[in-house]
Input
Amino acid sequence: MVEALITRRRCLPLLLALLSLPSDVFAHRDDEYLQGTLVVIEPGEVRLQINLTPGIAVAEQVIALLDRNRDGAISTKEAAAYTELLKRDLTVRLDGRNSELKLTASEFIPPAELRTGSGIIQIEFSASFGTLAAGSHSLTLENRHLTRISVYLINASQPRFATIQITRQKRNDTQSAGEIGFTFHPFRPKLAESGARSVSGWCENSRTNFSLP
Output
């Protein structure tokens, strides 16, 4: 729904994390659509913070899906259509059960910026867990969006709540799918010592450690 689209300014923690990786990670960046997903697990929900960066050689393919009327701008309606397209290509399961994703934030830049190869689209989805049982849990994520031109990164954010602990992360060879194991301890203090929430959006979870195939 168009009404569900929320546009916010973010400070690109995924971009900063990616820039810290070895240069050979980006050897084929120009002809790939880089999709980096930061998975934020909290006691009642999971958030997927996705940075989408089309390389110069594939930018027009992505822009064709965004700017449907080719007027050089991405309207609210066009942005909403693309977020729905992306959402249909994502599957999130908690302990083997499908979780319904809801758009919570997005930022779309003009097509001209995307053509430079460094422009980033940011989209955030969330899914509610309801009451989470104490103990071990498994969250799985699969991204099937534009597989023919895309490369992927998946990583769990360091939890902001002491009640959540990440215990393992597994990914397939392309990082288009992964499993995050975590435990929930409801009787621990809610806020971790280092978990002060930043007012600058996604920067609150900027501590990442990407593993590559």
Q: What stands out?
A: The chain has a mean pLDDT of 83. The chain has one domain: 2-18+30-205. Residues 2-18+30-205 form one domain.
